[in-house]
Design goal:
By secondary structure, the protein is of the alpha+beta class. The protein has eleven helices and 24 strands. Strands 8, 15, 16, 17, 18, 19, 20, 21 and 24 form a nine-stranded mixed β-sheet that branches. Strands 1, 2, 3, 4, 5, 6 and 7 form a seven-stranded antiparallel β-sheet that branches. The N and C termini lie far apart (about 55 Å).
């Protein structure tokens, strides 16, 4: 049964007190509750409707600077007491950490905007089926060559709370609505790569018809792909492509744990220019309507807006409480517990809403200034990029050739290679068509002199 705010906080407070009673010097209780309903699409048909509620409690306990952890998804009083005891026993059996300097103390939290919508809570499975049907039908009506491989419409409610020994008593809740569709097109002897379109919001403002139309349009435009010569090109990275590239390179490079372990090429470069002056990046944990916006991070620190780069100059790394105290600086509020059940995880550093400041040009204007280039929507192989050096070698698929300011035919089998730091230094312009994919909030980004290997 789902718990309300008072019940959740009471449960967390009890867990902390029990851990202290078992001998913990300090303790922390993190509660997470999610309610998810989704309607799936498989092979061009509505496939399934799934509703799921999950909740659980993760407890960290500290004994003599050693940190122990235990969790449970059974939130009965007896189980919580047992879990708190396990966390303390885990700490007593662990080695002390000389760098441990305590959990965060109480902070003032600010209100965030457009992260909760009661309309999403009220959505029924039937209404989600209707949204999925509209999205699917719109795509299939666009062109008979379009085939829908899969898709989904989803509504999510999430609540989280954190209580610790230093009077931190935090609670927040949020909603999410999303729809996405994957398509391909078939014509005679050619099948396109899979193309994808999506819409995700914290409020109920998704547009399934637009997603269906755009997913179909992309697939049809990927027909009749041609090879291109190997040479440096001007490349426009769409949001998904840039998100894939940065997730395994730049975003890791600005995390304080990577820096302190000497696994970041940016160690010691605060105040240096590492990118084009066109590049300004903020990690904005309080972004209005941001997909990763919350009032506090996953160890209770207030969320904030952190300047990572300003006009190409590196300004700050991203910190959680542990890494910040180790370095003698303030946490940036980037502690994060991921996965399907966050209460099962201990915090790690992660970007929130990693936002590239948009430019003034429309997407069409950005493209119109290119004599010879390619537009890249997706990258294959980005996960194999080197997080230390920033080196990458990826397949740009789907992608389209740009000639004399116009988007032309699709490109077959092109590869991009280089380093993410060269990409950042060669950013010549950013469009104003900003949207969010995962942690990344960005427009189309135009980069000069990218090495492209054709077939």
């Amino acid at each position: 049964m789902a718990l309300d705010r008072e019940e959740i906080l009471s449960l967390c407070e009890k867990a902390v007190k029990v851990a202290e009673r078992h001998g913990a010097d300090e303790a922390e209780a993190y509660f997470c509750q999610t309610s998810r309903t989704a309607v799936g699409i498989e092979r061009g048909q509505l496939a399934k409707s799934v509703s799921h509620i999950d909740q659980g409690l993760g407890i960290r306990a500290v004994y003599n600077k050693a940190v122990g952890f235990a969790y449970t998804n059974i939130v009965a009083e007896k189980t919580v007491e047992e879990t708190a005891g396990k966390a303390v026993n885990s700490a007593k059996a662990s080695q002390p950490d000389k760098d441990w300097k305590g959990f965060p103390d109480k902070r003032c939290l600010i209100n965030v905007e457009e992260t909760f919508d009661g309309k999403i809570l009220e959505l029924s499975s039937e209404e989600l089926v209707n949204l999925a049907t509209r999205m699917l039908d719109t795509a299939l009506e666009m062109d008979k060559r379009v085939f829908v491989t899969d898709g989904e419409v989803e509504s999510v409610y999430a609540a989280k709370a954190l209580v610790n020994s230093y009077d931190v008593t935090n609670f927040d809740q949020g909603t999410f609505a999303s729809c996405g569709l994957a398509t391909l097109a078939r014509d005679v002897n050619y099948v396109t790569p899979v193309c994808f379109e999506w819409d995700a919001k914290r409020t109920f403002e998704i547009n399934p018809e637009h997603v269906g139309r755009e997913a179909a349009r992309l697939a049809v435009s990927a027909l009749k792909a041609e090879t291109i010569p190997t040479k440096p090109y001007t490349v426009v990275f769409a949001q998904v492509a840039m998100q894939l590239l940065l997730s395994y390179t730049l975003i890791n490079a600005v995390k304080a744990d990577y820096v302190q372990r000497e696994q970041s090429a940016l160690k010691g470069k605060i105040g240096e220019r590492i990118a084009s002056e066109n590049v300004t990046v903020f990690d904005d944990g309080i972004l209005k309507g941001g997909l990763r916006t919350w009032r506090f991070d996953d160890e209770g620190m207030e969320r904030r807006r952190t300047a990572v780069m300003e006009k190409g100059v590196l300004k700050s790394f991203l910190y959680d409480n542990y890494r910040a105290k180790k370095e003698g600086v303030e946490s940036t509020g980037n502690a994060y517990r991921g996965g399907a059940a966050p209460y099962m995880e201990v915090p790690a550093i992660e970007a929130t809403n990693f936002r590239f400041a948009p430019g003034n040009k429309s997407a069409d204007e950005l493209v119109s200034e290119i004599d010879s280039g390619i537009l890249v929507y997706f990258l294959q192989g980005a996960h194999s990029s080197n997080p230390v050096s920033g080196e990458f070698s990826v397949v740009a698929v789907p992608s389209w050739r740009i000639e004399k300011g116009e988007i032309k035919n699709a490109v077959k089998g092109a590869m991009l290679s280089g380093t993410v730091f060269d990409v950042l230094k060669n950013v010549s312009a950013l469009a104003n068509n900003e949207r969010q994919v995962g942690a990344l909030v960005a427009p189309w980004i135009r980069v000069e002199n990218v090495k492209v290997i054709g077939r």
